[in-house]
Amino acid sequence: MRKKLVVGNWKMHGSRASNAALLSGLREAGPWNADVAVCVPFPYITETALALTGQAMSFGAQDCSAHEQGAYTGEVSAAMLADVGCRYVIVGHSERRAFHHESDQLVADKAKAALAHGVTPIVCVGETRAEREAGQTEAVVKRQLAAVIHTLTHCIGEIVLAYEPVWAIGTGLTASPEEAQAVHAVLRMQLHAATQKSDAMRILYGGSVKPDNAVSLFGQPDIDGGLIGGAALKAADFSAICRAAG
Ligand code: 13P
């Protein structure tokens, strides 16, 4: 039985004051039966670490460099994330693929850099609305995952995978539990062909997860938790989603 994992992706939101209020709300609301983490903007990682000292909640970042170190102005390495205690790093979020032109291979290289430093990459895959309407959903997510499998080889079992249909992110449109499950099953099968650990791997769903749809999504056999955007910014909503995963 896989333990569920719920991860809040704060994206580019927050301030020291609002983060403190949010984390204090979560401290009061927890603990939950699921594993829970927040992925916060880089400048707030250390304060988040302090605020979560002694808590069951983990924290992480939203991106990392594929490079080890060097003259890469503006980049943050996986080693640095490990150094400040990050447990997770999101890589390949559709917003980075779209706005920063990240390729499947770059995403795979970032996942590899994270694993090399003991930080678990949460690798995002997902199709756009046009790709879904063209019947390409399976082909797109399989292509995105294949690059990661090829690059990580025997370490693929160490990642967390997240299926985030691009058309469902921040739109209020959610994949139905059945639609999401169908894609998760395809992804699990692909992982199964690559590693004996596939049954233990967690595949999260992301895209307009809210307290009122979380139970039905998390009830699907291959949905092992969620990657939460907007609803992760409100302590009451995020904690209700964490409860739904318990
Ligand atoms: P929303 O929950 O706001 O749709 O965002 C999902 C997401 O992109 C999480 O990474």
TrEMBL record:
Pathway: Carbohydrate degradation; glycolysis; D-glyceraldehyde 3-phosphate from glycerone phosphate: step 1/1; Carbohydrate biosynthesis; gluconeogenesis; Carbohydrate metabolism; erythritol degradation. The active site is at 93 (electrophile), 164 (proton acceptor). Keywords: Cytoplasm, Gluconeogenesis, Glycolysis, Isomerase. It catalyses: D-glyceraldehyde 3-phosphate = dihydroxyacetone phosphate. It holds the Pfam family TIM. It is found in: Cytoplasm. SUPFAM superfamilies: Triosephosphate isomerase (TIM) (SSF51351). Substrate binds at residues 9-11, 170, 208, 229-230. Its main location: cytoplasm. GO terms for biological process: gluconeogenesis; glyceraldehyde-3-phosphate biosynthetic process; glycerol catabolic process; glycolytic process. Its EC number is 5.3.1.1. It is an enzyme of class 5 (isomerase). GO terms for cellular component: cytosol. InterPro entries: Aldolase_TIM (IPR013785), TIM_sf (IPR035990), TrioseP_Isoase_bac/euk (IPR022896), Triosephosphate_isomerase (IPR000652), Triosephosphate_isomerase_AS (IPR020861). GO terms for molecular function: triose-phosphate isomerase activity. Homodimer. Belongs to the triosephosphate isomerase family. This is Triosephosphate isomerase. The lineage of its organism: Bacteria, Pseudomonadati, Pseudomonadota, Betaproteobacteria, Burkholderiales.
